[in-house]
Amino acid sequence: VATPVTAVEARRLTSDASREEWHRAIHAATEAVRLSCYTFDLPSVVDRLKAARKRSVAVRLMFSHQDRTLTRNQMLRLQELRGVGCDVRAWTRNRLHAKWLIADAALVVGSCNFTEASQANLERGVRLRGLPAAEVAE
């Protein structure tokens, strides 16, 4: 049986565009936001994740436990998210270097960390939309 082809929209992103896509995707989410990060302390993302929780969106974040002290405010920001009911988990097996965000069926993946410092770096990413929800979940 042939698998139907889905039209997938892809957009290449700079650091600024990655941040804008994170904001847009979190703001538009109605069901779930999941993200994985090496380091995390970006206040604008924290604010949007907290707002998503207030809208009853399920928020799950996985961070690299081994690198938890690399950014000055990471643990404070993660505690803020836990305080509003976000599921914040530490990846403890080894260093977690993945950086991605899934908001409903939008996927943003790239090299940009969810930190203030990374916004000044020359980072790249991609946003994918139109993937079947089951594929994104997998």
Describe this structure in words.
With 138 residues, the protein is an alpha/beta fold. Helices cover 30% and strands 27% of the residues. It is built from four helices and seven strands; from the N terminus they run βαβαβαββββα. It has a seven-stranded mixed β-sheet with strand order 1-7-6-5-2-3-4, covered by helices on one side. Strand 2 (32-37), helix 2 and strand 3 form a beta-alpha-beta unit. Helix 1 (15-28) packs parallel to helix 2 (43-54) and helix 2 (43-54) runs parallel beside helix 3. The longest helix is centred in the first third of the chain and has 14 residues, at 15-28. The radius of gyration is 15 Å and the shape is globular. The mean pLDDT is 82.
Taking the alpha carbons of the first and last residues, their distance comes to 20 Å
* Secondary-structure element pattern, one letter each: EHEHEHEEEEH
Strand content: 25-35%
Radius of gyration over all CA atoms, rounded: 15 Å
Structural class call reads: alpha/beta
Helix share, percent: 25-40%
Q: Strand order across the biggest sheet?
A: 1-7-6-5-2-3-4
Low-confidence stretches: none
Query: Mind summarizing the main beta sheet?
Result: 7 strands, mixed
Layout of strands and helices, then pairs:
Elements: E1 9-13, H1 15-28, E2 32-37, H2 43-54, E3 58-64, H3 74-83, E4 87-91, E5 100-103, E6 106-110, E7 125-129, H4 133-137
Parallel strand pairs: 2-3, 3-4
Antiparallel strand pairs: 1-7, 2-5, 5-6, 6-7
Helix pairs in contact: 1-2, 2-3
